[in-house]
Amino acid sequence: MRYPLWRIGVFVAALWWPLLWLYQAWGDLLGPDPGKVLVDRLGLGTLVLLLVTLSMTPLQKLTGWAGWIAVRRQLGLWCFAYVVLHLGAYLAFILGFDWSQLGVELRKRPYIIVGALAFLCLLALAVTSNRYSQRRLGVRWKRLHRLAYLILGLGLLHMLWIVRADLKEWVVYAAIGGLLLVLRLPPVTRRIPRLVAKKVSSAKKA
User: Fold this and answer.
1) Would you kindly state where each structural domain of the chain is located, as residue ranges?
2) If you ran DSSP here, which 8-state letter would residue 90 be given?
3) At how many degrees (to 10) do helices 168-183 and 147-162 cross?
4) pTM
5) Whether residue 23 has pLDDT greater than 80
6) pLDDT digit string (tens) for 149-181?
7) Which of 6, 23, 161, 174 could link 111 by a cystine bridge, Cβ 3.0 to 4.6 Å?
8) How many other CB atoms are there within 10 angstroms of residue 90's CB atom?
9) Residue 18 near residue 42 (C-beta atoms within 8 A)
């Protein structure tokens, strides 16, 4: 396994936050409505991890360091783990596992449908993230995993619907997502290696 310490560090960092939040909720340290705070934090954590996962390829191209790609799959699976915890916390703390209320929630809060679509797409990516699926699907695997950008759009829409009163934080995440989308455009993708090569050449001459 390449970059073992780097992989372990990413694993510990990703595991730390949900454990901390669960401990805070258990210790009544999240205010008068700890369940809602936990749901919100896990949802935001999912979005942040998705952005971090999508940034691995651009970072590898900009720096030439393969360690970014080495943790990309792990980060993607952590993103799915967070969204499962987010959904579980919603069902437990918001619905109280009262399935009769789900229809009411969907009518009152249609952003839940958007979140559910994002979850299903993440599920598809998580199930096919293994090497067997990659070999089995071939070219279709890459096409399928481009759903990550659709998931990002759905996640940002889901968050926008929730935080309509205060858009400052949302704009930051949307700007980062927009930048990552620009970096995926073919003209930009082709240009990045040339820019990196020029910088390396200039550094050697200096």
Assistant:
1) 4-196
2) I
3) 170
4) 0.89
5) yes
6) 999 999 999 999 988 767 889 999 999 999 999
7) 161
8) 20
9) yes
